[in-house]
Amino acid sequence: MSNWMEEKLHDSGYVEKSTETIDGDIATLNLGPTHPATHGIFQNVLKVDGEKILSSEQTVGYIHRAFEKLAERRPYNQITPITDRLNYCSSPINNMGWEMTVEKLIGAEIPKRVEYMRVIIMELARIADHLVCNSVIGVDTGALTGFTYVFQEREKIYELYEEVCGARLTTNIGRIGGFERDFSPTFYKKLDNFLKTFPKVFNEFDSLLSRNRIFMDRTIGAGPISAQRALDYSFVGPNLRAAGVDYDVRVMNPYSSYEDFDFIVPVGTQGDTYDRFQVRQEEIRQSLRIIEQAYKNLPEGSYKADIPEFYLPPKEEVYNNMEALIYHFKIVMGETPIPAGEVYHSVEGGNGELGYYLISDGGRSPYRLQFRRPCFIYYQAYPEMITGQNISDAVLTLSSMNVIAGELDA
Amino acid sequence: MKSKLSNEQVAERLQTQFGEHIKSVETPYDFLTIEVDAAKLYDIIFWLKTDSELQISFLTNLGGVHYPDSEGSEFAIVYHLQSMVNNFRLRLKAFVSKENTEVDSIVDIYAGANWMERETFDFYGITFNGHPDMRRILNEDSMDYFPMRKEYHLEDATREDKDDRFFGR
User: A39 falls in which pLDDT band (50, 70, 90)?
Assistant: First the structure.
């Protein structure tokens, strides 16, 4: 650490001035802000005794972009791209969660087909999210092969997004009221192909790590948390389920027709890195099951709701039809009247319950919009989970918690 | 999954327990919203957690809202709580004035409230008494204002007085 930075940290009170030398008992170690093992910009100042971690001090906010403030100046349609940048490993879930929040506020009725289409996209996103997380745990234990292998499959998921919305990472997928267009024949072809090849690849990936002696030795017992502490820290999603609590928003408060599908909510027992890995592995399998069911039973109907005052009309109508022109103008300028009220809507994001607390005063943009960001809330348990562990376990714990900087800092 | 508690049931139990400290009961979009005395927040949240019937023992979310025009109650602190056993959600609200933006911290009830309270302090300047580490969290420590307050406007997207050829207006 350079001198000026050390001074700054001392001045701000983050780190006590250490009198120990390098061969003394206790050393201060900076894990991050930019460190290959943190997979994102956040800092941990560790006090270590040899390999053993004695305490950890976190600094977050390096990529804080004031989304909640920005949202107070944007029309509802323009907030969807903000949500992309929360958990950017599974943007479609964030997008659709936001769209559903607005639909709840305006009381829109959504066709069954849209809900099933959303389920397909959201579960694809969950697979992509969990694939990244789990393969990165492999990388952090030194097994790079699985990572490069499944990223090819993740690429196929991104191609599917591309087919639906034209974008890959920050998708801005869907609209308030449905989708901008129906799934194309190419989408179905690509989805068929994915559903056929993915299980084989995935099973091979699973066999590389799941019962691998080295992997198990590294991950079992690394960064554990008990169910009680996890609940205390408001854990959600795979991390909570790995600790043994079977809470899943898709089951408890079904949205977007999740009650129609048959799937299992996997739980762990120890809440350690291995359990988190296994829970995510099983969730990928269950997501595949959901996609297959939704695809097989995809209902006929429209790909959009009948809410002309919120859903942009087709361009060719805008030039020929007076109503379409008016609606187009109103939506683009953000002049659509919206009811005043407050709603809370949550979806099961890649990291668990992703909530949107929206207060509308009837104006063109939200009066207040708060994102319940699962990462931000559960990352504060990290020091407790790694105290007494080795540095290498701390790295594994971090990647298995799937802390995404975008969601952490908003 | 259906909820095992009804809005009326929970509202009634809270009213019998805390009486005049419950200021209003509403259910916007079927979500039980209860306004309570800011001074009683800690007790109510603790009671909700330990009550064997309600078991509202999970803190979902915590945040602030600024209402600059409502004199004497400029800031709202909003708690979203949840009972996983009963599958029930509850929203608690408390208002404080801009002269006295202090409420009790609930960190010793919910460890997870720590950063959520720091974030609320960071954004709105609401201080939580008894918090172990009341510092800013997302913004820089040397910042001398609270950015989410309504007096700090972002640029109005509908303004027409600006002549900026590079941005097409």
Answer: confident
In this structure, the answer to whether residues A31 and A98 fall within a common structural domain is no
- Cβ burial, residue A290 (10 Å; 0-12/13-18/19+): buried
A46 with A130, same domain?
no
Instruction: Specify the higher pLDDT residue, B133 or B159.
Output: B133
**Structure confidence at residue A315 (pLDDT):** 87
CB contact under 8 A, A357 and B61: yes
Return the structure tokens found at A127: 């697979």
Show residues of chain B in contact with A73, CB under 8 Å.
154-157
Chain B: which residues have CB within 8 Å of chain A? 1, 28-29, 31, 33, 57-61, 63, 65-66, 78, 80, 84, 87, 89, 91, 110-116, 119, 123, 137-139, 141, 147-148, 152, 154-158
pTM: 0.89
Residue A316 located in a structural domain: no
CA-CA distance, A223 to A399, in Å (whole number)? 11
Is residue A258 over pLDDT 80?
Answer: yes
Structural domains of chain A, count? 2
Domain containing A151 — which CATH number? Answer: 1.10.645.10
Do both A54 and A89 map to the same domain?
no
- Residue in the block written with tokens 């941990």: A44
Residue A11 and residue A99 in one domain = no
Task: With respect to residue A322, please indicate whether it lies within any of the assigned structural domains.
Answer: no
Sign of the alpha-carbon torsion through A247, B110, A347, A410: negative
Residue A72 domain-assigned (yes or no): yes
In A, minimum Cα distance to B156 occurs at: A73
Domain ranges of chain B: 7-154
Contact in structure between A108 and A177 (CB atoms under 8 Å): yes
User: How many CB contacts within 8 angstroms connect chain A with chain B?
Assistant: 101
Does A71 lie in the same domain as A54?
no
Please say whether the beta carbons of A108 and A310 come within 8 A.
yes
> Are A359 and A388 in a shared domain?
yes
Please report the sign of the dihedral spanned by the C-alpha atoms of residue A345, residue A115, residue A310, residue A74.
positive
pLDDT of A52 reads 86
User: What mean pLDDT is reported for chain A?
Assistant: 88
What pLDDT does residue B52 have?
Answer: 87
Which one of A15, A30, A59 terminates a domain? A59
Write out the residue range of the structural domain in which residue A32 sits.
3-59
Buried residues in A61-87 as b, exposed as e (16+ CB within 10 A): bbbbebbbbbbbbbbbbbbbbbbbbbb
Residue A398 included in any domain = yes
In this complex, the residue of A69, A341, A380 whose CB is nearest that of residue B115 is: A380
CATH number for region B7-154: 3.30.460.80
**Contact between A132 and A284 (Cβ < 8 Å):** no
A344 and B91 within 8 Å at the Cβ level: the answer is yes
The CA-to-CA distance between both ends of chain A, in Å, stands at: 28
